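ok here's Gfo/Idh/MocA family oxidoreductase, seq below lol
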Amino acid sequence: MRLGLAGTGRIGTTHAEILRQQGEVSSLVLADADAARAHTVASKLGVESADTIDALFESDLDGVVIAAATDAHPELIIGAVEAGLPVFCEKPVAADIPGTLAVLARTGAAGVPVQIGFQRRFDAGYAAARAAVRSGELGWVHTLRATTLDPAPPPAEYVPRSGGLFRDCGVHDFDAIRWVTGHEVAEVYAAGANRGAAFFAEAGDVDTGAAVLTLDDGTLALVSSTRYNAAGYDVRLEVLGMRDSVAVGVDDRLPLRSVEPGVPPLPGPAYPGFMERFRPAYVRELETFVSVVAGREPSPCGVEDALEAFYVAEACEVSRRERRPVTIAEVRG
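and the structure came out like this:
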């Protein structure tokens, strides 16, 4: 199997490292808007490189992995599908809902699989939480609590093009809540705050956010995000049912210390970031994409799934700005 990869930044380079270790991947071709960077990464990994993205698509590929900048996603996804190439793309599909709908319209009838990168679906803990909910062992679920707490803010130049905290960060929690419960979000109420660097407010964004989601069966989900959690990268999901409760992310590396007398500190160290925390999930995610390319299974997370999570993020952003509850039906238009 010959795969192409567009985008050789941090996540793209990690994907390339994983793909070159896949037994079915006989060759890998890298490309980037910065051709020199693509050549450097390819040389380091011992794989091929192409001078341009166009040249990448002309490299007799079986599938394409997209880890380029967000504004390039729609064109690259559509280009891959129209070339008949199965495609894996990091979230988001596009920078906004109209862009995502346009990609869905162009790819929906093509019959070519598209897999969007929500890696938490491939994490062992999230999968176990889903199984516990779907089996009924928790009874009916009354509350979910989800957190994505980054240890440090991103570079200032990243924030204006990130889409904002809810679209960039919270969207992973929104997708995980949908996937674990099997229910859609009906309404949100969100708030945000800025107590850190000025560049968040200057970009119209917030550095900390919280949202209450009401699911279509009445379950409540509380989602909390921040760019300032210096204790470490903290991603958790708690699922509380009438019979039992489970948690994801409560382990020896949880960056949270108890102040109760006699409670020993966790051995740690905390995860420094998402790449370290979710490395096994990224491996399983790309293993699955290889199976999708081989035709053994359908895409486990398509454009439609990404759109549903994006609707929730969009509703949270509207709610934050306008200080009111917002239904998902409202942002669907």
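fwiw The chain has a mean pLDDT of 96. kinda neat tbh
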